[in-house]
Design a protein that fits this description.
This protein is mostly helical and 516 residues long. It has a domain of 162 residues: Serine Threonine Protein Phosphatase 5, Tetratricopeptide repeat. The chain contains 27 helices and no strands. α3 runs parallel beside α5, α20 runs antiparallel to α21 and α21 runs parallel beside α23. The protein is elongated and about 110 Å long.
Length: 516
């Protein structure tokens, strides 16, 4: 019988093949092999095979997964390979994935851990990126712990770590939602850079739950109060002193105190108060902002104190933009109507009254609307109050508004004021055209307002009314009428310009409004 003995070269090939298979199967593989493979060219492929093979114990497969996380090479993206392997296993062995993640979670947590406030190491950043990836494959308690590790990485030093790694803090918050956002509230600190505090406020406002927003609001109010305290100023002095060049002459106490106070205001206005802006709808935040806005400096306060205080008040009112409610009208009007308060502060308070959309404010605004004083400030306040009354009251208040505008001889109106009223009325829905036509023959300020409303919102038939009004020789009174193009010295001149504007608008040829 012919021998079945294989040629020696074939026997050698099969022997080598069996040894290779043996090397990747059974208990012959251990942690030492995986550690070695991290350094070899083909090693990462072998690590992936261990991870994805059900022949190996879970502990060793988890060891392989962690090796991919630790992999610090430029030719292989360990986290990418880990993701591909887990995708494969999720479809074929979901129970194995859960077991591997249970083993991995504490290892990754230890990898991320470090001292609070210290710069993150490359290893910590890889650990954070790995934990963020693993969250997508985990559930239950393991998922919660992984989220805690990821967010804890940012909380330890948000300003220094918010952009570290493959995913920024904002991207992490967007992906993980409120469970991550609520932990970011813990990162808020009075001593963090103002822009970082503002970023945290924005993240919470856009991604947090109602409970998280409330928590953040309470935290920001506490931070703002901390910034106003003596301990914060003392810390600021230490920071300023520490930043002085080596060998520099020590700063005298008066200058140091002034610099600390100036920097404290930056932290307040550009940090705490600016961070409150997206959260100003929270009752605790709105209440504190209103409290700050209403804290007028003492009459005998030094000029620098007045300036600093009013800057803070203006910042608080800006932070309330779009968030004020009818319940806050009286507090805002108390600021807006205070003749002894700073005009810029009053202007912002008027804006916030408008935001409330409360008609309850109208009654307290009428005295300003009825003012016949010709001083620049009085006219400016009348204009401010008049537009606010029209904006809050709408068509229902137009007749009363026109009736209460001062009409006695000698009262002055600048064109911008009357044209401003007309613009508000012309933008109402519906436009009170019948009321306008009925008021056309009234006092000269009323006639000017009506003419401009008809120019902006009138119909073809209104051209005849304007042409009739063009015969009026009643003079207008106030600064600026002679600067208009064309010049407008009488009600008739205003009516002519309005008629031309109406005609151009109806014909579709309107460009720049005539007489504006």
């Amino acid at each position: 019988m012919r021998s079945l003995r294989l040629p020696s070269r074939i026997r050698a090939f099969l022997l080598i093949g069996s040894l290779t298979l043996g090397a990747l199967s059974g208990c012959a593989i251990g942690s030492e092999d995986i550690a070695h493979w991290k350094q070899t060219q083909k090693g990462p492929e072998k690590i992936v095979k261990v991870l994805t093979s059900e022949r190996y114990p879970i502990e060793l497969r988890a060891e392989a997964a962690f090796a991919l996380i630790e992999l610090d090479r430029t030719d292989v993206a360990g986290l990418h390979e880990l993701g591909l392997a887990l995708d494969q296993l999720s479809a074929s062995e979901p129970e194995a994935v859960a077991a591997i993640l249970r083993d991995l979670e504490p290892r990754v947590g230890a990898m991320i851990a470090g001292k609070e406030g210290e710069p993150a190491t490359a290893s910590q950043i890889r650990g954070k990126d790995a934990a963020f990836r693993l969250v997508g494959y985990a559930d239950g308690a393991v998922k919660d712990k992984l989220v805690e590790h990821v967010v804890g990485f940012y909380v330890a030093d948000f300003p220094g770590r918010s952009l570290a790694g493959d995913a920024s803090a904002e991207q992490v918050a967007q992906k993980l939602g409120d469970p991550a956002v609520v932990r970011l509230v813990d990162a808020m600190s009075a001593k963090m850079p103002p822009e970082a505090l503002v970023k945290l406020g924005e993240l919470v406002a856009s991604l947090g739950s109602a409970e998280t927003k409330q928590k953040a609001g309470e935290r920001l109010v506490a931070i703002e109060r901390e910034m106003e305290g003596d301990d914060f100023v003392a810390w600021m002095k230490q920071e300023i002193t520490a930043q002085q060049p080596a060998g520099a002459e020590p700063m005298d106490e008066a200058r140091l105190a002034a610099m600390a106070s100036l920097n404290r205001e930056k932290f307040l206005n550009q940090g705490a108060l600016a961070a409150m802006k997206p959260l100003a709808g929270e009752a605790v935040v709105a209440s504190r902002l209103l409290e700050i806005a209403g804290a007028k400096p003492a009459a005998d306060a030094p000029e620098v104190v007045v300036e600093v205080t009013n800057d803070r008040r203006k910042t608080a009112l800006i932070a309330l933009e779009g968030k004020t409610t009818p319940a806050q009208v009286d507090a805002l009007l108390a600021i807006a109507l205070d003749p002894e308060d700073a005009l810029e502060v009053r202007d912002l308070a008027f804006d916030r009254v408008a935001d409330t959309k409360s008609t309850d404010a109208i009654a307290k605004l009428w005295p300003l609307v009825q003012s016949a004083a010709n001083q620049d400030l009085a006219k400016r306040l009348r204009w401010r109050a008049g537009e606010l009354v029209l904006g809050l009251g709408g068509p229902a208040v137009v007749d009363e508004f026109l009736a209460k505008l001062p009409a006695r001889a000698g009262v002055e109106f600048e064109p911008e004021e009357l044209f401003g009223y007309a613009t508000v009325i012309a933008g109402m829905d519906p436009v009170p055209l019948q009321a306008m036509r009925a008021a056309l023959r009234g006092t000269w300020p009323r006639a000017v307002i009506v003419a401009r409303v008809l120019a902006d919102a009138g119909e073809a038939a209104d051209r005849e009314l304007l042409e009739q009004l063009a015969a009026s020789k009643v003079a207008v009174s106030g600064k600026g009428w002679d600067r208009l193009e064309p010049e407008q010295k009488t009600v008739g001149d205003v009516a002519n310009a309005a008629s031309a504007k109406l005609g151009a608008r109806l014909s579709g040829n309107s460009d720049e409004p005539s007489g504006s």
